[in-house]
Amino acid sequence: MQWDDIIRTNLSSVFYTSRVIIPYFLQEKHGRIINVSSVWGSVGASTEVAYSTTKGGINAFTKALAKELAPSGIPVNAVACGMIDTSMNSFLDPEELAAVIDEIPAGRAGTPQEAAALIRQVAEAPDYMTGQIITLDGGWI
Prior knowledge:
With about 140 residues, the protein is mainly alpha-helical. Helix content is about 50%, strand content about 10%.
């Protein structure tokens, strides 16, 4: 079923990956978790209920886990992307793509390189920054 597939792919994977790595981080007294979310996790999207649900779940998971791991000095944050120019958007025809881009104040989709750069900055941020959902969306949402 499509619902179960997207829950497993987008949300359960975050839980199970964290469950595997957290004991190592606790043993080493060092580590950080950076989850990849979406702006739809904060505001929801019409016709994207399952996807929005998983990304909202990642946001809540990030905030809750950050509170659990903060005493151990392990920050947990998420990067919530808007439209990034990837194959995920290939289902949009040129008119639909133009309509979405017209809604983005920056006038374009973000690039995978920009998303990677922000994730790297979060990885290098002070440990005191935890429980944050950082948005990268060109001013869209």
